[in-house]
Amino acid sequence: MIQLKQILEGLNLPNAKTQPVQQTDAAPKMTTEQKRKLSDMVSKFNEYGKAIYREADIMEISNHLQEISNLAESYALNECGDWFEEGTVRRNMLELKKYNESFSKIAKEAKVRQQQMEALYEDMGRVLERYFDINDLDHVKHPADDRTATDIAASGQHPTVGDQRSGVV
């Protein structure tokens, strides 16, 4: 049986004791433009949190849809006129229940994934903060002008839907 030492000697690998290992995959030097872009992107890291932390809870939406399904079934069965319609309505309401159950199951999975994404986002932020400055959300400048969220709040203007200066669409 061949020993590991003999196999390694046959491969002609550099020996750590005799030859230093040279790194061949070193990162290339960054240009000034790339450095500026990195700094700008990292400084806006907190803006990404708006997309990561959803305002509407998916489970709350799922519960509302469940309630809608239950009420719709009750209404439809009570309001159908003849026995023929009742059979069709029952089939349709069973289908609605199945859709709702599937939605609820996926919503639970999405909630778990959402929490995992939030944790990873926060971990990434902690690492980036060690090396870069990250702006607070209220100090981030809006793309259409040079005002920050603090400036807008202080001016008493409330951004409305479609207000291009606020960045809200």
Please provide a written account of the structure:
Among the domains are: 82 residues; 35 residues, no CATH class. The chain is rod-shaped and about 75 Å long. It has six helices and no strands. 62% of the residues lie in helices and 0% in strands. By secondary structure, it is mainly alpha-helical.
Largest sheet: none
| Count of runs of 4 or more consecutive helical residues | 6
H/E series: HHHHHH
Q: Please tally the β strands and state the result.
A: 0
The percent of residues in helical segments reads 55-70%
Structural class: mainly alpha
Question: What layout of secondary structure does this protein have?
Answer:
Blueprint: H1 4-10, H2 32-43, H3 45-52, H4 58-79, H5 83-131, H6 149-155
Helix pairs in contact: 3-5, 4-5
Question: Which properties best describe this structure?
Answer:
single chain; about 170 residues; mainly alpha; disordered C terminus
